[in-house]
Amino acid sequence: MALELRDLRKRFGDVAAIDGVALRIEDGEFFSLLGPSGCGKTTILRTIAGIVTPDAGAVVLGGADITRRPLHARDVTLVFQNYALFPHLTVFDNVAFGLVMRRVARAEIRTRVEEALALVRLAGLGQRYPAQVSGGQQQRVALARALVVRPSVLLLDEPLSNLDARLRDEMRGELREIQRRVGITTILVTHDIHEAFAMSDRIAVLDRGRVEQIGTPTEIYQRPRTRFVATFSGQMNEFDGVVEAVADGRASVATPAGRRVAAAVTDDAPGPGARASVMVRPERVRLDPPADADQRLDAIVESVTYLGGSIRMVARAGGDRLLADLPTGDAPPPAPGARVVLGWRTADAVLVAAG
């Protein structure tokens, strides 16, 4: 079921936790709210759930305004960061809890709980207690408890943050696969860009209570529209300066050091005379670049770090520090102090407003 947030606002004292957030999440979509601590993402999730009451704006589910409805009447369920399982109840009874509260018949409860446990690959573990299953299994119990009541919207509040790195990677895939099979509208809150990219259909990047950009993972990473989105979604090479000209889908920026750097532009990009930054991802920077790399810089290698799947090179080109993620190969990378040529295509650079 589609969910809309219409000019949602919430203040805690002098802090605007939600500052005019407006977005629409489509039926069956996996949507992530991504941002640093304190950006408002959890407050938005709790407002959707009915735990927090907004100062202004509306939460609309399936065309109905649910802003003032109590939590139990919203047709949404929330999986908390710490799972919030009842330690004195078995796995079966934890999952059944919501159905018992809704006075569902006992026979139907058994059928639905067994189906939910099978869905999350916990069949046969219903008589264990939370302390008798692993962290990943506890996460699945919490998910089964949320899904068994068959809500229209599933809310996930950083559900993987308590797991180790290997298990977190596994659960990303499992959560996404379960969501696809069930087809439920899902909203994930996370500060982890890799988690959001791996699981989401679309992402809203938030900062200080406001939406900076909404887009697919590819759009957020490859075509960030603000400096905040560009730097939060991954490391960047930055060239600050003033836009000299914009023509044929590209802009030329003059830096204080006298360098001219070009970037691809969108319709809302800064125009001539505006302060702006050209930004390039490290993996787009090439050593001894091919002919289609129309931006080239002579540089001196400062350091080389082996990262397994790639090599991180740090180089200095005049007053500019450059990061380049190079593929590993049979030939050793240039050593610190070596002179190199680095380059990239204009199409791989983006232009964002300064500040």
Task: Tell me what the structure shows.
This protein is α+β, with helices and mostly antiparallel strands and 355 residues long. It has 8 helices and 20 strands. The strands form 4 sheets. Strands 6-7-8-3-9-10 form a 6-stranded mixed β-sheet, sandwiched between helices. α2 crosses α3 (106-119), α2 runs parallel beside α4 (135-147) and α3 (106-119) crosses α4. The mean pLDDT is 93.
Name a few traits of the molecule.
36% strand, six-stranded mixed β-sheet, 355 residues, 8 helices, alpha+beta
Short account of what is shown:
The chain has 355 residues and is an alpha+beta fold. It has helices at residues 41-49, 91-101, 106-119, 135-147, 165-182, 193-199, 217-222, 227-232; strands at residues 3-12, 15-25, 30-34, 56-61, 64-65, 76-79, 153-157, 185-190, 202-207, 210-215, 237-247, 250-254, 260-264, 275-280, 286-287, 295-306, 310-317, 320-327, 339-344, 349-353.
Please state how the strands of the largest beta sheet are arranged side by side: 6-7-8-3-9-10
Q: How would the global form be characterised?
A: globular
Radius of gyration: 24 Å
What share of the residues does DSSP label as strand, in percent?
Answer: 35-45%
**Rounded average pLDDT:** 93
Total of DSSP H or I helical runs spanning 4+ residues: 8
Sheet with the most strands? 6 strands, mixed
Q: H/E series, N to C?
A: EEEHEEEHHHEHEHEEHHEEEEEEEEEE
- The residue ranges in which pLDDT falls below 50 over 5 or more consecutive positions are none
Helix-residue proportion = 10-25%
Q: How far is the N terminus from the C terminus?
A: 38 Å
How many β-strand runs? 20
Structural class: alpha+beta
